[in-house]
Amino acid sequence: MNALRRNVLKSAAGAGTVAVAVAAGLLKPTMALAGAPRTAFEAKNVGDALKGMGATGAADSKDITIKAPDIAENGAVVPVEVTSSIAGTTAIAIISEKNATPLVADFDLSNGAQGFISTRIKMGQTSLVRAVVTAGGKTYTAAKEVKVTIGGCGG
Amino acid sequence: MAEPMRIRATMTGDVADVKVLMNHTMETGLRKDSKTGQLIPAHYITDVTASVNGTKVLDAGMSGGISKNPYLGFKVKGPKAGDKVVVNWSDNKGDKNTAEATIG
C-alpha cells in the first residue's frame, strides 16, 4: 500500500493531481494524511507545510519529547531526537519553522518500528523545532526552541 | 556513484537500535557558489526506506533541510540478533544506494 501511495504522490505534478486522485477514489483521504506528499516539502511556510501534510488541527501533546540543543552553534548540523510515547505512532515529521522550506523530513513507521527518530537537521535561524506525530489517524504536535548562532541554510 | 553508507544495528532488550550514516552532499539549491555567485543546484536525498528481514519498518521523506551526510537513528521492536537490516535511499537526481547489516 505504501509503495502505491508513494508512486501516486510522486507522479503527481502537484496538489491538484492529488486532489483528482482522491476524488477518483485512488487514494482515500486518510491515506494521504499518514505521510507527507512531496508538495508539503516544497511549502514555504509552516502553515502550508502543515496543510500539505493534512496536520492543521494537530493537538499539543506532552507525550512527545524533542531532544535538541538549547543553543546550536552551527545551524548546519543540529542534532534532533524525537520520541513519541503515544501508542500506535505511525509517523513522525520534523519541522524547522523558519527554514526556507520548513518541513525537514517525515518518517512513516510500521511493523514494530518504535516512536523514535534521531537525525541531524539544518536550521537557517533561531526558531522552533516542531515534531508532528500521527497516531491512530490523529495528529499531535510539540515544539522546542533552538537558538542558532550561525545559520546553516545558505549564508 | 555515491559513497557507501554505514549501518550499525544492536539489540537492547527486545528492541533493535539501528543507526545509519549516509554519505551525501544534501545541497538545498538555495546556496550560492562563493566564486561564481551562481546557485548550487539542489541535490539531496528524497526517500529513505529501511526493512528488517524483508519487512518494511521505515519509509521516510526528506528535504534539503537534513544536514550533509545524513544521520538517522531509529528503533524497531521484534527482531532478533542475526536478523538483516537493509536501508535504501534515492535522491532528487535519481541516484540510489543500498546497504545492509546484521543486527548484533
From TrEMBL, chain A:
Residues making up the signal peptide according to the UniProt record: 1-34
InterPro entries, alphabetized: SoxY, SoxY_sf, Sulphur_oxidation_SoxY, TAT_signal
Coiled-coil intervals, chain numbering: none
Taxonomy, superkingdom: Bacteria
Any Pfam family hit: SoxY
Record key words, sorted: Signal
Residues in Ig-like SoxY domain copies: 54-153
PROSITE patterns assigned: TAT
NCBIfam families from the UniProt entry: SoxY_true_GGCGG
The protein, known as: Thiosulfate oxidation carrier protein SoxY
Organism of this sequence: Sulfuriferula multivorans
Taxon lineage: Bacteria, Pseudomonadati, Pseudomonadota, Betaproteobacteria, Nitrosomonadales
Gene, per the UniProt record: soxY
Automatic annotation (TrEMBL), chain B:
Domain Sulphur oxidation protein SoxZ, first and last residues per copy: 7-101
Pfam annotation, one family: SoxZ
Domain of life assignment: Bacteria
InterPro entries (alphabetical): Ig-like_fold, Ig_E-set, SoxZ, SoxZ_dom
Name the UniProt record assigns to this protein: Thiosulfate oxidation carrier complex protein SoxZ
Provenance organism: Sulfuriferula multivorans
Top-level taxonomy: Bacteria, Pseudomonadati, Pseudomonadota, Betaproteobacteria, Nitrosomonadales
